[in-house]
Amino acid sequence: MQLLANTTSPFARVARVALIEKGLDVEPTLVDPWAGDKRLLDANAAERVPTLVLDDGTALTESLLIVQWLEATRPAPKWPSLLGADAGQVAGVLSRAGAALGGIEASVHTIITRKVTAPTLFDETPVGLKRRRTMVDVMLKLDALADSMQVANPASTAPTLDVICAVVLYDYQMLRYPNQTWLPHTPKLASLAQAWRVRPSFAKSVPVIL
Ligand SMILES: N[C@@H](CCC(=O)N[C@@H](CS)C(=O)NCC(=O)O)C(=O)O
Predict the structure, then answer these.
(1) For the segment 120-174, what is each residue's pLDDT rounded down to a tens digit?
(2) CB of 50 closer than 6 A to ligand 1?
(3) Distance 153 CA to ligand 1 centre (A)
(4) Structural domain of residue 153, as residue ranges?
(5) Distance between CA 176 and CA 139 in Å, rounded?
(6) Nearest of 4, 3, 12 to residue 108 by alpha carbon
């Protein structure tokens, strides 16, 4: 199995954390999704990370489809459910995960669009401002919800998808927008990210710009 990824992508990190939590600690094969890497192009016409190539050659793309594959092939109770231990939890988990993913999408869209326009040109446009407003609102919302995603002992508790997406968003924001005045103060979200970093899945996948 081969996980094509880079060291910054929050989508790749969601997939990697989920894989590790399901017992598949696949060391990522680093690719640049902007450089026409043949390994990535052969597996994913969209040339995006993450792309997971299974042992039989089947290519899985889209972070949430990789999570879906994991849920189907490595189900509870043998493996932790990423959607929650009981059915009553699922809607809440998906709702919080969806909010965090909206923030991740807005954040990545901003970074990617800066590649084709000067930063201020995009950031100050109506679309750029909408993306920024989304990032701010989502971070504040997750900060308010952070207590519900804390557990007594993260070292011995697998995270659900909402936790994965919230922590991935927070760490990505710190990587991409350090010291930005518009970034909201989210101390509870910061504590959440810090607390879950005791788990190898999060610790091994902290994003870095190489
Ligand atoms: N919806 C996809 C998004 C993946 C994505 O946009 N990955 C970015 C890196 S953060 C990428 O590879 N971008 C290259 C491109 O857009 O061409 C997922 O959930 O996996």
Answers:
(1) 789 999 999 999 999 999 999 999 999 999 999 999 999 999 999 999 999 999 9
(2) yes
(3) 32
(4) 87-199
(5) 14
(6) 12
